[in-house]
Design goal:
There is one protein chain. The protein has 442 residues and is an all-alpha fold. It has a domain of 279 residues. Helix content is 47%, strand content 1%. It has eleven helices and two strands. It has a two-stranded parallel sheet. Helix 1 runs antiparallel to helix 3. The protein starts with 86 loop residues before the first helix and ends in a 46-residue tail after the last helix. 29% of the residues are buried.
């Protein structure tokens, strides 16, 4: 509410616009000056501070989704002013439950579709056929994208673009660059695998015999159409949503107790990278060397996401890597065994080489390009919690109590706000004692 100073003169008569109430006493509007400041005590050319009832209200909290302050790294993008310690667990539980419910519903729908089509669904084959099962698996994994977007927007009440990059959007030009870089890297990865197999098992074939165009072409179409959505969904959920959940803990350097050892440790990306890579490995149906293979890939992509300030690089390599892996499985007809098995040490060496080469090239390009790694923006324009402005104590004190003998307590006149009209007082202030006309309180 705007606090307008009173007009010049002894008082400001402000009566009601309607007819007078019978017996109501008419009194001028009284104004209270802050303690120690008398009316007219301001220096020449300076405005006199004046208070009126009701007191000014503190600013209301801004509405809408929150965004992190400028300079926030990617893994801390969920640390907005709306953050509370219980929000990350609630968001994680919500996302996991929605993913499980969605998968159960889709599996039941797939089983019904298989039965209506005359096929027998099983636990490993919900649709009872190789290519439909592949499409079904990719679609189920792709549903993680809208779920984590929904959770970030509704539960964390922040902008969904913060999951994509520090700029709050997908940097499409950078994504195209990373796709182009990933193509020769995948070729080098396959070359390392082929070389290691020639050295260790020269009698074994690197790729099995071709299954035929009638099986390969439909599978390739499904792979090209759905793998980009599946791979990017895993990045949104694990390198984006999960890593930012972990990274939101730890007080900022400017916050209270932000310099503690625990806060400094939690602010680093190390914990988020480790958790993201570990969960990524455990969610795959692998064991042995294959589990280590996936863990290396997951940790490398989490680190690269933090370093580049976005998911573009990780999405690019993940999509191209899966296209190559699923394409080779479709070529030799082993899609039923895809994403399973124990792997080999040669695979771990190949994936490590792939990750090191890709990260090295991407880091070099990011530096030359001057890629933004933290959230942009003007600190004055960023949505922040309103400051808790406390009114002076003399403002919120109770009004003076009238003495039964009719005398006002010493020092009470002018030291408090005038109370709103009540049943025993005039319309705009308490009755004036002594029958005089009140001027501005001093």
């Amino acid at each position: 509410m705007r606090n307008t100073p009173p007009p010049t003169g002894p008082s400001w008569h402000s009566g009601p616009s309607g007819p007078e109430q019978p017996g109501a006493q008419q009194h001028p509007q009284d104004w209270a000056w802050p303690p120690g400041a008398a009316a007219g005590s301001a220096a020449p050319g300076e405005a006199q501070a004046v208070w009126a009832w009701p007191p000014p209200q503190p600013p209301r909290a801004p509405s809408g989704p929150a965004q992190p302050p400028p300079g926030t790294p990617y893994h801390r993008m969920a640390r907005t002013w709306r953050f509370r310690w219980w929000i990350p667990p609630l968001a994680l539980i919500t996302a996991v439950l929605l993913i499980l419910v969605t998968q159960v519903v889709l599996i039941l729908a797939g089983n019904v579709a298989a039965l209506l089509g005359g096929r027998t669904p099983t636990a490993d084959s919900p649709l009872g056929a190789e290519i439909p099962d592949l499409a079904f698996m990719l679609i189920v994994l792709a549903t993680m994208t809208p779920i984590v977007f929904f959770t970030a927007r509704v539960v964390q009440w922040r902008r969904v673009g913060g999951l994509l990059s520090v700029e709050g959007r997908m940097r499409w030009g950078w994504l195209r660059t990373c796709f182009l870089v990933s193509l020769p890297i995948i070729a080098a990865y396959l070359g390392v695998l082929y070389t290691l197999q020639l050295v260790t098992s020269p009698e074994a074939a690197f790729v099995g015999p071709f299954v035929g165009a009638e099986r390969f072409l439909p599978a390739l179409a499904v792979i090209l159409l759905l793998v980009p959505f599946q791979a990017s969904a895993e990045e949104f959920a694990l390198r984006g949503f999960l890593m930012q959940l972990v990274g939101s803990y730890g007080r900022g350097a400017a916050e209270r107790r932000g310099g503690s050892l625990a806060s400094r440790a939690l602010r680093t990306p190390a914990l988020g990278i480790a958790v993201s890579g570990t969960v990524f490995a455990l969610l795959h149906d692998y064991h042995g060397w294959a589990l280590a293979d996936v863990a290396v890939f997951g940790v490398a992509m989490a680190w690269l996401t933090w370093y580049t300030g976005g998911l573009e690089a990780a999405i690019a390599l993940h999509v191209v890597h899966n296209l190559a892996a699923f394409g080779l499985s479709a070529f030799e007809g082993t899609l039923a065994e895809a994403a399973t098995g124990g792997g080999s040490w040669e695979g771990v060496v190949g994936t490590t080489t792939e990750a090191v080469l890709f990260c090295s090239v991407v880091v070099l390009l990011a530096r030359r390009r001057g890629l933004r790694r933290t959230a942009p923006g003007d600190p004055e324009a960023v949505q922040a919690p309103p400051e808790r402005r406390r009114l002076p104590r003399w403002v919120t004190q109770a009004p003076p109590v009238q003495d039964p003998a009719g005398a006002e307590p010493p020092g009470a006149h002018g030291s408090h706000f005038r109370t709103p009209p009540g049943p025993s007082q005039g319309p705009y202030g308490p009755p004036q004692y002594g029958g005089g006309t009140a001027g501005p309180a001093s």
